TrEMBL record:
Function description: Binds and transfers iron-sulfur (Fe-S) clusters to target apoproteins. Can hydrolyze ATP.
Species in which this protein is naturally found: Faecalimonas umbilicata
GO annotation, biological process: iron-sulfur cluster assembly
Protein known as: Iron-sulfur cluster carrier protein
UniProt-recorded Gene Ontology molecular function terms: 4 iron, 4 sulfur cluster binding; ATP binding; ATP hydrolysis activity; ATP-dependent FeS chaperone activity; metal ion binding
Keyword Metal-binding: yes
Organism placement in taxonomy: Bacteria, Bacillati, Bacillota, Clostridia, Lachnospirales
Alphabetized Pfam families for the sequence: ParA
Length: 281
């Protein structure tokens, strides 16, 4: 019988009737999940990943969070980019996270987005985090099960770039409902997108789609779209992988300056409307 094959492709739900359940990879994967604390109730956990650094993953994470917040959903951002945290500063948060015997409280941005990041725990924001991979991965797990997130419709996880320890821990330990891959138009990046895609697939996490950042720059005088980083190949890549393109974001000076002003809680990002549909469905 198909569900009795020990091949890792069956669902954990079919374990009860399967003779191979104890040694089955699908059940083992399930057992590695870390339960949240009793004060955390998150409806959807969405990972934002990129194969490579600097493609604007934090920008996309925060934009998705803003978009859902604007639609009235309660949202949180778990900044899992431990060595390069940028989310609190984008929202103008420079305070220290506080806790009690039950756990740590996320900091609350002006638009009520709940945020947890290593920068909220350091004595100085400029202190570098020089920890080995397993320690960093442990902190990310604590951000899930020791932070009192409360009731959230969406928790966005801003992952560090690449396919290392932290993405692996997040996929294994958190109940990730889907990932969004961020890319930029360069050829090399398209290849790296596939690595992120295959990692998610291997971890049985659905890929909700791809967002291309830095797609073009719009001339402020004539409105012409200039492909600064070359022609986009995102549609080809998406088609090849069988996923949707959820949006193409230009290099937008308005977005850059709102990040500089640390007022991301005011952003309305219309470039990612298709992503909202996918997140709500
Ligand atoms: N579409 C955009 N328009 C203008 N500025 C942008 C855009 N996307 C990103 N930026 C800016 O580029 C910088 C890098 O973006 P971001 O921090 O989101 O990248 P990242 O992929 O998360 O980086 P890392 O991988 O190093 O964590 C930031 O200052 C951000 O504000």
């Amino acid at each position: 019988m198909a569900e009795e094959q020990n091949n890792g492709s069956c669902s954990p739900e079919s374990c009860s009737s399967c003779a191979h359940a104890d040694s089955c990879p699908s059940k083992q994967k399930e057992s590695m999940k870390v339960a949240p604390n009793e004060y955390t109730h998150v409806k959807k956990v969405i990972g934002v990943v990129s194969g490579k650094g600097g493609v604007g993953k934090s920008m996309v994470t925060a934009s998705l969070a803003r978009m859902m917040r604007e639609q009235g959903y309660s949202v949180g951002i778990l900044d899992a980019d431990i060595t390069g945290p940028s989310i609190p500063k984008m929202y103008g948060i420079h305070e220290h996270a506080v806790g009690n015997e039950l756990g740590m409280f996320p900091c609350i941005a002006k638009d009520e987005t709940r945020i947890m990041s290593v920068n909220l725990l350091l004595d100085s924001e400029d202190t570098p985090v020089i920890w080995r991979g397993p320690i960093i991965a442990g902190v990310v797990t604590q951000f899930w099960n020791e932070v009192l997130w409360g009731d959230l419709d969406y928790l966005f996880v801003d992952m560090p770039p690449g396919t290392g320890d932290v993405p692996l821990t997040v996929f294994q330990s958190l109940p990730v409902d889907g990932v969004i891959i961020v890319t930029s138009p360069q050829d090399l990046v398209q290849m790296i997108v596939k690595k992120a895609y295959y990692m998610a697939k291997q971890m049985d996490v659905p890929v909700l789609g791809i967002v291309e950042n830095y797609s073009y720059l719009e001339c402020p005088d004539c409105g012409k779209k200039i492909p600064v980083f070359g022609e986009s190949h995102v549609e080809e890549t998406a088609e090849e992988l069988g996923v949707k393109v959820l949006g193409k974001m230009p290099l937008d000076p308005k977005l850059a300056s709102i990040v500089e002003e640390e007022k991301f809680y005011e952003v309305t990002n219309d470039y990612l409307k298709d992503a909202a549909e996918v997140l709500i469905s």
